[in-house]
Amino acid sequence: MSTADARVSSGKGADPGTLSVHGLPQASGMSQADSGAANAYFVQGDERSISSPFDLGLVSFTGTASANQSRVSRPLRVLHVYKTFFPDSVGGMEQAISQMVRATQGSGVENRILSISPNPLPKVLGWEGAQHLRFQLTVNLASNAMSFELMREFGKHVAWADVVHYHFPWPFADLLHLTWGVRKPSIVTYHSDIVRQRHWMRLYRWLMFRFLGSVDCIVATSPNYVRTSGVLQRFAAKTRVIPIGLNPGSYPVASPAVLKRWQAAVGRGFFLFIGVIRYYKGLHILIEAAAGTTYPIVIVGAGPIESELRIRANRLGLTNVRFLGALPEEDKVALLTLAGTVVFPSHLRSEAFGVTLLEGAMHGKPLISSEIGTGTSFINVNEETGLVIPPGDPVALRNAMNRLYADEALRDRMGTAARARFDTYFTAEKMGKDYLAAYGALCTDARTAATSQLQKA
């Protein structure tokens, strides 16, 4: 028997049996006999030591336990891999991963998160019942954080996992996957195309296509992005759509004192932007649109171009624009409660979804966004949940703001529709069920492959 066969063997004479996922519904195509394992795993050797990046294979899932096997019932282990996570960085990607973990952690999944940090002490953190491990940053090249420590230790975490869940884009993760020759069931949430680093893309393209070609499943966060991404079109056969969802209960409730404090500071009914202040967020467009207006605009967040934008607003004499910097979650919830409209002027495809738009919809606020062919227009439907304008157009943005600021009835109607659309498509509960189904399908495919190898042995 080959080494690969040995990795999936159940032992001589063992029944090929089933792979049923603890806490998950029976996967399509599984018979009642297959599902009769009482939602248990039979796990053999997945905690073995790994001596090199080329010694990883499938977890040994088997059926009826033989005399020399033990039956172990445990949750499905999912390993999330991304360059950064709370508390080192706060943004839409981190929030999306956080919500995925929350949505699946209580449904038969044990999550582990791997990330890189410039100061990874303490190394092990807890997050909503999941384990978060941080690794020392070695170098950051063109927004691609890399860690020699993570490269060394990645194998033992893959050995722990039943499913490896990558979050794209992060080229170093591609390298981790391919260097270690990972053959565990693997899934990639494709959060965004790589838009800005065009020169680096000439070097990276081969690695990216090999990585995406080697994983088992790719998840896009909106049908809009699938239609407009050349990369996703190339892998359409294994791409599915699972929108990012939020759990309102995961957000703090703004206390009366906090609401009162912010109402005294900024009033009510203002336009609100929340997010990391990056080049693709279109805040320079918002500042240009604000010229000559008097309605209040509140900008929450910090980032690489914050000081540049503050200088520009000062030069234009925009006393109605307030930069509040980064704020705690309770303060952001208070501002979402007090706001009249959420404005989100991102103008480049780097904005693949827009969690802030989801948060606005969750709070029943009308939305303003740009048509950039991404998930922003899946969340915000023009003339239904808000207004969608051409990207990079300050005049169109100003006109949209004028229209909503002047019409309370329109704001109420669109805000109600935004919340209804949120409840239909964007809850964390729905997202969690969809990912559970995806994980289950991957494990079923792994069981089928393992059974086939056993029959050939």
* Spatial separation of the terminal alpha carbons: 6 Å
Q: Which shape, going by the Cα principal axes?
A: globular
Q: Identify the CATH homologous superfamily of the largest domain.
A: Glycogen Phosphorylase B
Assign the CATH class of the largest domain: Alpha Beta
Helix content: 25-40%
Mean pLDDT: 85
Radius of gyration from CA coordinates: 24 Å
User: Into which percentage range does the β-strand content fall?
Assistant: 15-25%
Q: What spatial order of strands do you see in the largest sheet? A: 5-6-4-3-9-10-11-12
Low-pLDDT sequence parts: 1-71
Structural class from helices and strands?
Answer: alpha/beta
Question: What is the total number of structural domains?
Answer: 2
Which tags fit this structure?
457 residues; alpha/beta; Rossmann fold; eight-stranded mixed sheet
What do these coordinates show?
The protein is an alpha/beta fold and 457 residues long. The protein folds into 2 domains: 75-247 and 430-456, Glycogen Phosphorylase B (Rossmann fold, 3-Layer(aba) Sandwich); 248-426, Glycogen Phosphorylase B (Rossmann fold). It contains 16 helices and 18 strands. The strands form 4 sheets. It has an 8-stranded mixed sheet with strand order 5-6-4-3-9-10-11-12, sandwiched between helices.
List the helices and strands and how they pair.
Blueprint: H1 3-8, E1 43-44, E2 60-61, E3 76-81, H2 92-105, E4 109-117, E5 124-127, E6 130-136, E7 139-141, E8 144-146, H3 148-160, E9 163-168, H4 171-179, E10 186-190, H5 198-214, E11 217-220, H6 223-228, H7 230-234, E12 239-241, H8 256-266, E13 271-274, H9 283-290, E14 297-300, H10 306-315, E15 321-325, H11 329-338, E16 341-344, H12 355-362, E17 367-370, H13 376-379, E18 386-389, H14 394-406, H15 408-425, H16 428-456
Parallel strand pairs: 3-4, 3-9, 4-6, 9-10, 10-11, 11-12, 13-14, 13-16, 14-15, 16-17, 17-18
Antiparallel strand pairs: 1-2, 5-6, 7-8
